[in-house]
Amino acid sequence: MSSKLVEFFNKQPRLGGLSTASKSGKPNIAYFLSPHMVDEKTVVMALGNNRTFANLLENPYAAFMIFESGMALSDWKGLRIYLKMKEYQTSGEKLE
After folding, report:
1. CA nearest neighbour of 63 among 21, 7, 34, 33
2. Which of 67, 49, 65 is nearest to 57 (CA)?
């Protein structure tokens, strides 16, 4: 199952939304193309200095939902992954 999860997560094109919440519980959702699943336990994504990043600094829990379109709405596929930010970088080799 894990290899299929990584394959589906990284497949392009896809539409993905990252849901976060501030420390006080105010929700936010934003669309991202950058998330990449390295393995079944690691997701890497690029974020700017925005509300999503500010929320993750206050509350490290998030959910990422991916949709893959189909010919008809009933043919669409999707998945939801629950995440916890463990580290972030604001400079360095990975960002370059």
Report:
1. 21
2. 49
**How far apart, in Å, are the Cα atoms of 30 and each of 3, 25, 27, 54, 94?**
26, 16, 10, 13, 23
Residues whose CB falls within 8 Å of the CB of residue 15, separated by 6 or more in sequence, listed in order: 31, 66, 67, 68, 69
Q: What is the pLDDT of residue 14?
A: 79
CB-count burial class (<10 Å; 0-12, 13-18, 19+) for 56: buried
Instruction: Residue 79: name the closest of 24, 27, 40 by CA.
Output: 40
Contact between residue 32 and residue 20 where contact means Cβ atoms under 8 Å apart: no
**Amino acid at the residue 68:** E
Diameter of the chain measured on Cα atoms: 44
Percentage of the chain beyond pLDDT 70 is 96
The pLDDT assigned to 83 comes to: 95
Residue reference for tokens 């400079």: 91
